[in-house]
Amino acid sequence: MEESVVNRGQSGLRAKVLDAGLCTGCGACIDICPYFRTYRGKTSALFPCIVEEGRCFAWCPKVEVNLDELSNRIFGGPYDGLPLGSLKSLKASKAGPEAGSISDAQAGGTVSALVTFALKQGYIKGAVLTDREGLLPLPRYVDSVDDILRCASSKYTAAPTLSAVNRAVAEGRRDIGLVGTPCQVLASALMRSNQLQRDDFVDPFGLVVGLFCTWAVDYRLFEPFIAARISPERVKKIDIPPPPAEIMEIFGEDGTRMECSLEEIRPLVPEGCAYCIDMTSEFSDISVGVMEGRPEMNTLIVRTDRGERIVDEAVSAGFLEISDMPPDNLEHLTWAAGNKKKRALLRARERGIINSGGGKEPSYLLMNAEVLTRLTEEERGR
Amino acid sequence: MSHVTVDTSEGSTVLLMGNEAIVRGALEAGVNVASGYPGTPSSEIVETFSKVASERRLYVEWSVNEKVALEVAAAASFARLRSLCAMKQNGVNVASDFLLHLVGSGTRGGIVLVSCDDPGALSSVNEGESRYFARLMEMPLLEPGDFQEAKDMTKWAFDLSEELKQIVMLRSVTRMSHASGNVTFGALPDQPAKKAEFKFDGFILDPDEGVVISAPVEWKHQQQQEKVKKAREMFETSPFNTYSGPERPELLLITSSACNLYSREALKLLGVEDRVGLLKLGTTWPLPPKLLGKHLASTDKVLIVEEVIPFLEENVKILAAELASEIGTKTFYGKNDGLIPMTGEMNPDLVIEALKSILNLDYRAVPQEYEQTAQLSAFTGAPPRDQVFCPGCPHRASFFSIHNAIELDGRKGFVCGDIGCYSMAIRPTGFGVLKTLHAMGSGAGVASGFGQLGRFGMDQPVLAVCGDSTFYHAVIPALVNAVHNRANITLVVLDNSGTAMTGFQPHPGLDHNVLGEEVPAVDIAKVCRGIGARVEIRDPFDVEETRRTINELMDDPEGVKVLILRQACALSPQRKYVKNYSMKVDEELCLGEECGCGRFCTRIFRCPGLIWNKDKGKALIDEVICVGCGVCADICPQKAIRREEVAS
Hints:
heterodimer; A: 382 residues; alpha/beta; 31% helix; globular; B: 648 residues; Rossmann fold; 4 domains; 7-stranded mixed β-sheet; 6-stranded parallel β-sheet; 24 strands
C-alpha cells in the first residue's frame, strides 16, 4: 500500500481548515506569501500553491496543534488541561496613575498600561494591536504610546491581527508586542516554536498579551447586523459586560447607548469558535480579561517569567495596580473556562478531529489521550 | 498608396492577398464608398481601401458596428454611388435586421456585401455560416474559387447589383481572404468626381426615383423574388461556374470557394482527373438549374465538397429532386452521409479520404509508420502551450485584479464576457475568470440579466467585461438596459486604446479615423455617466488599487457600476518599442519554489517575459520580449523583481 502524502501546505490547510469551516481569520497565514489574503474578515486562498510544507499550515491554530509540544516550548512542561492554563499568579488589576488617561479602554485598562510600559522600558520596540475602521478590525503595528491608546478597547469581531506581525517581521522588526485573542495567541505560540525547523528562525515576540475570549463575531455578519441599528462609522465603543448581563452594549459617538441580547449575537459567531478550547489565551506571557461584578477592574493572569518581570516592574513603576482576586470570581472564571474547554473538546472529538489521523491525516488537536479523557468526562456542574 | 493600385492599367500580374484582390476588383468597378467593422478574416479589406482612399477619391470608414456599416454603404447606393461593406461572418448577423429591409427596398448604385467566414473558427468563437443569409434574404450569392476570381467576381458583383437593383453578397473564407495568389489586373477607371444625389420625389414605387422602403411588402417581396429569378437566369451562363473533367465522369465533384483549391489538389494527387469531373460553382445562390441539370445528368454519383454546414449540398439535392424525371436518381456523397465532416475547415487530405472511399482507391500520402511516429512525437515531444496574453498585456494585469477581487469577496462572483483578446480570460492566462462568452456586447447584456436574479436568491456578485471598441459596438444598449432596469452589476471596460485584436483599427473613442483625419472622440466615461452608471477610471497596471476598486464596486449593493481600466495594448503603435522600465530579478531575494512564493511569477502570473531558471531555481527576465510594463515588480511577494526607469 502506498502511503498517502500529507500536504502540510496550502492544500492541506484548505482541506482541513478553510473548507472545513474551522478558520477564525486570525491572520497567521496572511502576508507571508502571495496566496493567502484577507478581506472584510474572511481569509481566502487566491491561487493554488505548490509548497508541500509551509508556514501557513505550521502556524494555523486550527490544524495539527500539538499541545504537549507547545506547552513544553513555552512553559517547560506537558499540557495538563487546567481550565485557566499554566500560570504563575492570578490577580485583580487596573491601570495605575503613571499609565495616564486610558478612557477608551475596556474595564481596568490593564492591557494598554502593560503595553505602554513594555514599550517605554524597551521590552518591546513596537506592538501589533487591532484598530478598527467602522466595525472592520484593522491590525496595526504601532510604536508610540498615542497609537497604543488609539487601539484600546475590545473589538469582538474576529480579526486577522497576526497579518500585521507577519508584515512587521518582513520589514525586519523584532521584539514585537502582541495583544491577541486565544486563537491569535495560540498561533503566536506556534510561530515562536520553529515548527519548520528553519536555521534562520527567530522568535519575533518581546511580549504576548492574551485576551479572554468566549467567542468573536464574523465581521461579514456583524456589520449588517449593526448597520441595521446604527451607522457603523458612528460606533464609538462596543462592550459585552461580564455575566450575568447577557447583553452587548453599543455606544455611539453622540453618547447614545443601545443593547442587544447575546441570543441575537450568537448566530454571528464563526463555526471555528465552537471548537476553541481556550478562554484565557493560555499560551501568552500575560492574559487579561474583565472581572465579573467589578467593571473597573481586570482579571490578570501571569504565565511566564518574562510576563512576571514586566508585571512586577509595571506595578513598582505605578503603571499597574494589583490586588487579590476575590475567591468567588476565581471559582466562576475557572468553571467558565473549564466548561468552554469541555464543550469544545466534546464537539471536536465527535467530529473526529482530535488525535485522529494516525499521522497520515492532519488533526485539529494532538494531545495526551488521558488528559483528553479527563477533560471530557469531568463533571463541571455548579 | 498600396500595391493594389501599383498599376492602374490593364494586364500586369501582382501577388495579392484574397482580401486585396477583392479591393482591386471594387476599385476596377469604380467603387466610391467602403465601410465595415473589423473582424478577422475581413479586416484588411477596409484597411486596404483606406490606403488608397485619397488617390481613388473614396470615402472609407470603420463604422461602429456591422449594421451601421451596411447602412452607411446603403446610403451611398441610394445616392447612386457604388459601395462595398465588409465584415466577418457573425457581423452579418448584426447587420441582418437592416439587411432584411434593404433587400425589400432594393438598391440603386451597385452595392456588395462582403462576408469573410471563418470555418474552423481560427480567429473566432463561432464558425457561423453567412451563406444561408443569401437564401434567407433572397439575394444573390457569389463565392470566388481563387484569387483572380476574387478580383474579377467583385468587379462583376457591382454590375450585377445595378442590373438587379439589389445588394449582392460575396462570401470569402479565411483561406481565400488571407492566402495570396497571382492576380492579373484590369484597368482602373478614370474617375470623374461622381455627384451623389438621392432622388425621392418620383412615383412611390419607382425603384430609381421613389422613396426607398420595403413596403408595400407583398408587392416589393414579389419584385425581390423576380430579381432572384433574373439572377438565376444570368448565372446559367456565368463564367464563374466552370467544369473540368471527362464528358461522362464516374463521379461529379461539386464545390465552391477555397474547397475548389483543395479538390483540385486532391484530384491531382490521386491522379483521377480523368475519372472525376469537377464542377466549380461561383454563383452559389440561386443555383442555375440548367447548368446543374446538364452536369448531374452526366453521372450517377455526386460528391459535394464544402465547409461547415451542407448549404450547397442541400441546394443541389433540391434541384436534383426537381429534375429527377430528366436526370434520373443519383447517389449523393457529402456531409449528410458523414463522409465529409460538418464542422471545421476542409483540406486536401479530407477530400482525398472521401474520394478514396467512393472510388475504392488505395493511397497514402506518407507511410503509415511515419505518420504514427510523427503523431506520437508531436504528442510527447512538443511542450504544451496554451494561448496566452502577450508580454506586458494590460489584460493580464486587469484579470489578475478581477480574479483576486472575486476570490477575496468570496461570494462566488463571476464575469460575463464577449469577443476580444480578453476572451482568453476563460483560460489560465486570464486566471479563468470569464464564465460566459458569447457575442459582441453580450457580457454586459447577460450580466444585466444575472443582475436581476437577486430576487430569486442569487447572492453572487455579477461582473462583465468588454473592450473599448466592443463598448461602442454593442455594449451601450445593454448598459442602458441594466441601468434602466436597476440591475446590480459591475462592468469593467478594458480600454486598450484601439481595436487591438484585429490590428488597432481606430474606433469612436479615438480622435482620429481610418483616414488619419482628426475626428471628435466619444468619451466612454461620459457616455456611461450620461446613462446613469457610477463610473471609476483606473490604471490596470496599479494592480492593488484596481483590485481595491473592484471590491468596492462589488460591495456597492445598488445599480450599475462601470470601471474603465485604461492602458494601451502592448503592441499598439504608442507602446510598441517603448520600454518604460528595465526589469531585473534580484536572485538573492528571489525565493523561487520556497514557502512564501512557490514560483508565483512564472507559475501563476505567467507573463511570457518571465522565465523560470530551473538550474538556479530562480526567476529571470526574458529581456528580448519583456516590454517593461513593470507589473511583475508589484506582484512579486519578495520585491525581488526590480524596475528601473529607462531614460527616454
